[in-house]
Specification:
With 77 residues, the chain is mainly α. The protein has 5 helices and no strands. The protein has one domain.
């Protein structure tokens, strides 16, 4: 499993309150289905629509290139 950037992992765990198990599950589904991590988290009910919006806003913020690149690497884009 590719490692997520520490800042993204910290955001998922601390701000969105996701467990390590939930994050690992979403990463596995993202790798298998060639999906997008934020959408997979929402699609499988691991985050709410409000949390999806928070995550997408965070990803679009300063330093977002590193975070989006890491998500893209999960699906080999």
């Amino acid at each position: 499993m590719p490692a997520l950037p520490k800042a993204l992992l910290r955001f998922l765990e601390e701000d969105l309150r996701l467990s390590a198990a939930a994050i690992a599950l979403a990463v596995r589904y993202t790798e298998r289905s060639e999906g997008n991590l934020p959408i997979v988290l929402w699609q499988y009910g691991l985050i709410s629509l409000t949390q999806l919006d928070q995550l997408l806003t965070w990803l679009a913020g300063p330093g977002s290139e590193d975070n989006i690149g890491a998500i893209d690497s999960l699906v080999g884009c």
